[in-house]
Predict the 3D structure of the following.
Amino acid sequence: MKKIILIVFILSIHTTIAQKSTEKITISYGNNSIIDVLKKIEKKTSYRFYFIENWFNDNYRISGQYDSAKLSVVLKDIFEQTSINYYITSDNKVILTQNNIIHDFFPKIGLSENGDENKAIEGKKPVFIARGNTPRRKGIETIRIGKETIYSSLKEFTLKGRVIHTETKEPIPNLVISVPDKNINSVTDFDGNYTINLPLGTNYLELKSLGMLDLKVKAIIYNDGFYNFRMEDNLEMLDEIIIDADKDKNVNESIAGITKIQIKDVKTIPLVLGERDILKVATTLPGISTAGEAAAGYNVRGGKTDQNLMLLDNAVIYNPTHFFGIFSALNPFTTGDLEIYKGNIPAEFGGRLSSVFDITTKKGNNNEFKGEGSIGPVTGNLTFEIPIIKEKSSLIVGARATYSDWLLNATNEEKLENSKASFYDAIIKYTHEFNENNSLLATAYFSNDKYSIASDSLYGYSNTLLSLNWNHRFNEKNKGSLILAHSSYDFNIDYDNKNGNSNFNFAYDVNETELKLLMSYVPNNKHSIDYGISGKFYSNSPGKKTPKGNNSIVNTLTINKEQALESALFITDDFSISENLAINAGLRYSYYAFLGNTDQIVYAQNSPRNEETAIDTLNFGKNEVVKNYGGPELRLSARYSVSPSLSIKASYNNNFQFIHTLSNNTTASPSDTWKLSDYNIKPQRAQQVSLGLYKNIDGNTYELSIESYYKKLKNTLDYKVGAELLFNNTIETEILQGDGKAYGLEFLVKKNKGRLNGWIGYTYSKSLVKLDSKFSENRVNNGKYFNSNYDKPHDLSIVANYKLTKRYSFSANFLFQTGRPVTYPIGKYEFEGEQYVFYSERNKFRIPNYYRLDLGINIEGNHKIKKFAHSFWNISVYNVLGRNNPLSVFFVTEDGGIKAYKSSVFSVPVPTITYNFKF
């Protein structure tokens, strides 16, 4: 009986539609609320509105002017930016509804022309909300998204928005949003933004993040829409973990060979002199190492130190180390996240062969003033987060400096009595959110080092960078960023020999400025497309030597300045072919042009480059193209999910590198100069393939990964024996370019939960170089492959933290590495009355193996909520075993014989107490 009455009621409505009033409206309103406008319409016409007043926001204002317009036209404009629908009855009643539509017809369901059932459906299936027999979920908020439309046939819609902290208003990154019963998942980005595709109707969303109270929401989806979630802290004390990862994200993401670290998760790892260092932690992970304790650079998968693109807020940082490579140049209190791409490098990045270190500075708190600092035996650090406009803009300001000279003066070495070593760095980042579609980020950074170790020379180097990032969201599917970045690296030597007349100053610098447009387009839940264009201008001063003082006999010497332009077009599509197979495919086209004003020497073909084979000099005017290089770079990665917690990934990359370091040291040093590819020096090239297996165990309690790689290099730079790299206008005569190859197997197991957590990383790898030529002076080791300077086949790291109580924990860090290659003298001979040393083939031998154990105790302050500052003590001992690990081995002739000596940095245990505070 009820069904019959309902059918009669609907039919009666349907039959009266044609009889609706044709009354026209003439009305104007300006800056009025919707309710006020509806009341005006009621006064001027016979229409009456039925609605609930709390559906409307009094602060939302509208304006309009109409002359003899249909009511439907006016109402369409009034409700355009709201979730309100309307229905006009035959007796001039206007019934308003939230989100949904009042349907006055039956969908036509039957047989189509070809006989298929359920194909002849007119309009869209209405959204029905189940009641009665459906089990209720207590304590779950209901939200309604979008406005239902009649003629849309879509069954899936996009929900976007942002997740922020209820109190601090800060974004919550890496938060998982899921619909468990429909196997739908999404993750917020660094700014707390999310995008999730949901089916029409009712969806039960779950929001989860470490340290936050889980949130469950019932979302009724009518159309595309926006919703910002707010989440609260989970007051329950959680077990601390070392490296955080979204649940199964390491398994599910399509990019291979990516490592992610958050600075907040490294504070308990015992490091030298108690300084938190996100880059040092990175070297405990497979595939990333250094040539030694005081090496100013990082070797990734058998690559040279200059083959890593180090980015700080999109600007290149050329030397990311302080204090002979012992500390990183990144302030730990302002650094947010670090992503290292060592397998598949996204197409937006170029110019390096081995890896990208994408470092992001934290955003300042825009709601309340905060501070953080530390006091240690060598460094002091202080950082402030300052709201400028509440909930809109903020500053984060950090400064760090060392007072390490006392450490050198406290030694018993007479040679070190007059030594000095100091550094400082400062960073400031401004963030402004104009509205939900526009935001601005600006970063300025400066670092400076000065040191003199038992010499007459004072060395100094500095990094300067500026970056501006304008983010704009065009619509629900398109957004973009315009990035302007400038980087500068300077090195200088102040030589002052009080007993001589050869005093001089030497300086060089490398500068680059880049403009990049990065766009993102998400057409559907299957594809995510990034594309853009970039242009970079290099301006290098390879060196200038000038006399110091009136008595100096040094002549001024200036090396020719260099300029070049590097530009690129790029596009990447991250798409899902099926539930199990996903592909990240990218293409980058790079173009490089070396520019004048310059003179380039032409050497005779089929001859070694030297003074005798120089046949001509070419002169190029200002900004004239001297030589260009470039070509396509393919970036391809694929992931196949065997199960929700197990996947296989493979990748292929080819890359160009147009700028190189010049150094004949076995380890990177601040005095290494940078050289652009020119008429005679070709860009380096590399190809890499990788294959890996990724597994999560016991709900991501354990993570396991095994990845192998093989890399081929072309035009890699090396040098003749005894090469003169400074003050040399014909540097190409000292450089050798050859081939290289690297391969390895990386193993990582991590425990993320429980009182005991940490990871074990092991790498077996080889890094080889071949310098072959038909000319003997350009041939090394008879043209055969030999070990590179940083080849270390075995690399083992164990990092562990045990949580004894909520306040006390113990940490340990153990490292073992094969000794790096070295060239030994193997004999001596006499020629014309003089004795000479005969050396082995290059890098035939190795220095002793390296191993080190560090231990630490971490003490948290009490956890009272209402207190001025929260403290954290770190008591650690670096190199507990007192292992005298050699950095290098060198040979000197004494009393007619050859003697070998080892140099090391920390040959004894180094205890440290560091006090950290946060307010």
